[in-house]
Amino acid sequence: MYTASTAGPKVPTKDGILGWLRSVEGWLDDRGKKAWIIAMILGFVFAWPIGLGLLAYMIWSKRMFTRSCANKSDRGGPWARGNSHMGYGAHLRSSGNAAFDAYKAETIRRLQEEQDAFEAFLQRLRDAKDKSEFDQFMEDRARTNAAAPVTAPDAGVAKTGEY
């Protein structure tokens, strides 16, 4: 049972503090993410443990990373799996329009081919760069070996034939 109050969240009379916290959560959710952020900042200003607790709760409940707290059925935004037509694997579902589905399938196939061709081009570019760097290294090594004087093995050591 709620008490009649127009300014602020409704305060339940028999649920105690837990019910009051739930009603505050609902009130903040109705006002969106900005209300949560303002409450967190005020918590840090007046008593830092409260602000820290709100921050931890916002991260834990994923309120910090959603588009809106007001729509609880759309948690995770448009990219959340299963919540929207824009989610992961959306290109596999049919729109119901055969012409559009054929166009979409052709476009996805073409884009995949272009991506494969671009990745192959990048690999050839990396291979060519690696080869030119290796050739430069070998040229530098040959140049330093040609410029270094050749020294004879130690002449003062007697050779006995045993090693």
- Number of helices, where a helix is a run of at least 4 consecutive DSSP H or I residues: 4
Shape: flat
The major beta sheet can be summarized as: none
Rg, rounded, reads: 35 Å
Average pLDDT figure: 74
- Which percent bin holds the helix content? 55-70%
User: What structural category characterises the helix and strand content?
Assistant: mainly alpha
End-to-end Cα distance? 100 Å
Q: Describe it for me?
A:
- The protein is an all-alpha fold and 163 residues long.
- Among the domains are: 32-90, no CATH class; 94-147.
- The chain is 57% helix and 0% strand.
- The chain has four helices and no strands.
- Helix 2 (33-46) packs antiparallel against helix 3.
- The relative contact order is 0.04.
Question: Which terms summarize this structure?
Answer:
mainly alpha, single chain, 163 residues, 4 helices
Task: Compile the SSE list and pairings.
Blueprint: H1 16-31, H2 33-46, H3 48-60, H4 98-147
Helix pairs in contact: 2-3
Short description:
Helices cover 57% and strands 0% of the residues. With 163 residues, it is an all-alpha fold.
